[in-house]
Amino acid sequence: MPELPEVEALKDFLADHLVGREVVRVLPVAISVLKTYDPPVTAFEGREVTAVHRHGKFLDIEADGLHFVTHLARAGWLHWKDTLPDGPPRPGKGPLALRVALETGEGFDLAEAGTQKRLAVYVVRDPAQIPGVARLGPDPLADDFDEVRFAELLKGERRQLKGALRDQSLIAGVGNAYSDEILHAAKMSPFKLASSLRPEETRRLYEALRSTLTEAVERSRGLAAGRLKAEKKSGLRVHGRAGEPCPVCGDTIREVSFSDSALQYCPTCQTGGKPLADRRMSRLLR
After folding, report:
1. How far apart are CA 139 and CA 157, in angstroms?
2. How many CB atoms neighbour CB 74 within 10 A?
């Protein structure tokens, strides 16, 4: 799933390629991708792009007072085309969900792999009309997101750190991958209760949050859209690397599986050498 660093890089890439150019066609291929109908998606046609924004994991293309907002979900991606194919795309069983064409002949496709169709597109006059945007918590890279504000968010938070970091209404933009990376950098168990943090631990987690995301954004800055996935994977230290040695201590990276996701962590760095219980594997071994 694209998270804050990748969406930030896509925002910068699209700002360079879209601002000042006219959208001539918006062609939905999978109708299910459209989550709003008034104004219609065709209302975006004939407008000049004036800005590109990011709201958490949402991309927002602004054109003459309208906002084309997309959330790429778990398996969606944006594919930039220097030259779009001739003719309209054909509906079918492929991954293509929607195409946006510019007056220059350039444009982009929104595509989604897999069977769980969660890629979403909205055309609205105000991004706050979108429930997912309206409920977003603060952006962790915003200038006013300091340690005091972070501590206030965690005060009384009874969830485990992994779940708290992924909650978009608490902090916007962090998902499964970067929550693993942040907790590894902070040397904290993903199962540790947020409300149990001492002041020095809160400071360490805040610094890991900011540094992990900032470094990921810097690695992605200036890359073409097609290279962002590979850059994300190459920069991850523990997420997706179960069975590999920890780059910090050399211990074997472990995994805890859930029904639709998994987390990875280093026992030596994060849990005092103790493996965490993998509930799904425990059930299989009974």
Report:
1. 18
2. 16
**Predicted local confidence at residue 39, as pLDDT:** 96
| 15 vs 30: CA distance, rounded Å | 25
* Structural tokens at position 148: 């005091």
Evaluate whether 135 touches 169 at the Cβ level (below 8 Å). yes
Q: Which amino acid is at 184?
A: H
| pTM reported for the whole predicted model | 0.92
Residue type, 54: R
Average pLDDT, the chain: 93
Q: Who's near 53: CB < 8 A, 6+ residues apart?
A: 11, 59, 60, 62, 127
pLDDT digits (tens, 9 = 90+) for 119-157: 999 999 999 999 999 999 999 999 999 999 999 999 989
- Tokens coding 165: 């970091």
Task: For residue 83, give every residue at least 6 positions away whose Cβ sits within 8 Å of its Cβ, in sequence order, or none.
Answer: 105, 106
- The confidence score (pLDDT) of residue 231 equals 85
